[in-house]
Amino acid sequence: MKKRTIIVSGLAATYPLGGVAWDYIQYLHGFYRLGHDVYYLEDTGGWAYDPFNVTFVDDLTYHTKYLGDYLAALDPGLAKRFCVIGPDDRHWGMSAEELDAVVGRADVFFNISTTCQLRESYAKIPVKVLIDSDPLYTQSSFPQFLDGTATDEEKRNIENMRRHDVFFSFGENVGQDFCTVPKGVIDWIPTRQPIVLSSWGDAPAKPARQTFTTVLSWQPAQKGPLVGGVQYGGKNLEFEKMLDLPQKTTAELELALGGGKPPRELLEEKGWKLRDGFSMSQTPWVYRDYIWDSYAEFSTAKNAYVATQSGWFSCRTACYLASGRPAVVQDTGYSRFMDVGEGVLSFTSEAEALAGIEAVRADWDRHSAAAKAFAARYFDSDVVLAKLLADALA
User: Fold this and answer.
1) Cβ-contact 319, 284 below 8 angstroms
2) In the prediction, which pLDDT does 221 show?
3) Exposed end of the chain (fewer CB within 10 Å): N or C?
4) pLDDT tens track for 171-208
5) According to the model, what pLDDT value does residue 1 have?
6) Which DSSP state fits 314?
7) Angle 384-388-394 (CA atoms, 0-180°, nearest 5)?
8) How many CB atoms are located within 10 Å of the residue 209 CB?
């Protein structure tokens, strides 16, 4: 494919946490490996999260050093390919003049998770792509918009989305009759998270521990979406169905817990091993090491993804798989288009979750090899991003 100048947006500096960094920067790294002239832009219009003091700040010194160090370690060629704009309009990384030059020649702008404000200069880029990483949350106000009852804020949000030219969603079932994510307003093209396999392939052949792990935030600060009279929720609603699981297996199950006020005492009483989520994701490399040290992943998904059968699949889980770590993860409808059963063991009930855990323990080597093959088949950044770009420019 012809070399393109590409801008990718995200939240890797705004939320300086290991998992967030991998979510967004694998787009930058993947496009760069494909030979494109690609840059990372962060321009949210808001403040940045300080994970040490659990507050928000406008001084981005720590955040941009964190991001710059990460990019340089991934590939020295990425070290100067970023710009973060603070709420005071200060530019970090690339200067305003350097950014203007890139924007002026850009062919495509990828606004992942609607994280970037769409300034007039960005709006002039020939192809503006919106990637929905949070199905149902993104579309929750579509019914009100269509029937004329949307609030002014909801209207503004939707109109801002519609300023883009092409639309993709991690909810690969969105638009299908069985999927209850609201339809209309926008036609979504399915896509999935790109994983730069070489960043994960050097994991030790055998993990340091025989522990099923995951990294999670328990419950969002805000209520989940209310759609069609149904109140949807976060990961905690689905996890509560699995609370007794440690008492039904001799496998060690561990949670690296972030925010959301999890019921730590209850979890420990039920037999879950707990770790501090921030400590396990303070940098992208600490986060990767935590995954590499794990025997496999066990995790539920957000209730909103599960109940709607959206087909969403976790970037975190894909990173486990690329590391040769099997995953026992809740089905959101992805089993309709992915071959599960080896490497990825999907579940819809506690009994199925338990069966998946025991299957991994019975033949870890087979499931480890299958996990790597699964990641290569479905998430290889070379394939995912080549298709994403081709679909965006079609």
Assistant:
1) no
2) 66
3) C
4) 999 999 999 999 999 999 999 999 999 999 999 999 99
5) 77
6) -
7) 145
8) 11
Q: Taking the CB of residue 286, how many other CB atoms lie within 10 A of it?
A: 14
Tell me which residue of 333, 320, 299, 304 sits closest to 368, measured CA to CA: 320
Q: Which of 115, 206, 132 is nearest to 166 (CA)?
A: 132
Owning domain of residue 330: 197-378
The C-alpha atoms of residue 376 and residue 252 are separated, in whole angstroms, by: 28
Residues 385 and 329 in one domain: no
**Which CATH number is 58's domain given?**
3.40.50
Residue type, 373: A
Residue 332 has pLDDT above 70, yes or no: yes
The amino acid occupying position 279 is: S
- Cα–Cα distance, 299 to 357 (Å, whole number): 11
CA distance 209 to 253: 11
Question: In the predicted model, what is the mean pLDDT of residues 370-379?
Answer: 98
How does pLDDT run across 97-140, given as a tens digit for each residue?
999 999 999 999 999 999 999 999 999 999 999 999 999 999 99
Closest alpha carbon to 310 in 106, 95, 140: 140
The closest alpha carbon to 315, from 16, 103, 114, 20, belongs to 20
* Alpha helices by DSSP H, the chain: 18-33, 61-74, 96-105, 120-123, 142-147, 152-161, 235-239, 264-270, 284-292, 303-307, 315-322, 350-362, 364-378, 381-393
Task: Say yes or no: 174 and 222 in one domain.
Answer: no
Helices 61-74, 18-33: inter-axial angle, 10-degree rounding: 50
């960094």: which residue's tokens? 21
Confidence bin at 245 (pLDDT 50/70/90): very high
The identity of residue 254, as a single letter, is E
> pTM for the whole thing?
0.97
Q: Are 129 and 115 in contact (CB under 8 A)?
A: no
Tokens 């091993």 sit on residue:
273
The answer on 9 and 113 residing in a single domain is yes
Q: State the CATH number of the domain containing residue 202.
A: 3.40.50.2000
Contact 99/83 with Cβ under 8 angstroms? yes
Q: Quote the CA–CA distance of 58 and 159 in Å, as a whole number.
A: 28
